Description:
This protein has helices at residues 27-40, 57-64, 77-94, 106-112, 132-142, 190-194; strands at 47-51, 69-74, 99-103, 119-124, 146-157, 169-177, 180-187. By secondary structure, the chain is an alpha/beta fold. Strand 1 (47-51), helix 2 and strand 2 (69-74) form a beta-alpha-beta unit.
Amino acid sequence: xxxxxxxxxxxxxxxxxxxxxxxxxxxxxxxxxxxxxxxxxxxxxxxxxxxxxxxxxxxxxxxxxxxxxxxxxxxxxxxxxxxxxxxxxxxxxxxxxxxxxxxxxxxxxxxxxxxxxxxxxxxxxxxxxxxxxxxxxxxxxxxxxxxxxxxxxxxxxxxxxxxxxxxxxxxxxxxxxxxxxxxxxxxxxxxxxxxxxxxxxxxxx
Length: 205
């Protein structure tokens, strides 16, 4: 059973999506991912967007760890209902509406997002069968809604190719955990390269 690992609701069990429709991030991978994000200082006070949210486990984990707000985007009726249940759980613990569920397909959601909408941390965990061109299209639409210094995390099968990054995004790290591979990207800043700045980290597979 999946659970919230740390923060205000640490140890609390999460409701899972019934059946094989979704592919939840394992607690092992989730713990490693959030340890890294904590090291980046990417969670506390962040505006978080969890695309293809499934049960919403990554988003509610962020809420438990101090994110300012979390948007869960999921199109499937059963999965979005589970998202809402898990959102209600963390909102109850926090005593405020930190997590909001949006029942929507990802690309229309990004297209409808207000021009001023900007997120600091984005999880992109699309279904493995989703074609790479579709992943690239979502990343392109996402670029218009990233805050300066944002972190984008893409989770795919370890057998999947690296995403084709839009010019506005730069991959700065990746990590493989068994059958799962995580890529980390940030908005491309030409001035930072001109000034000789280096990325947050450089990890191999």
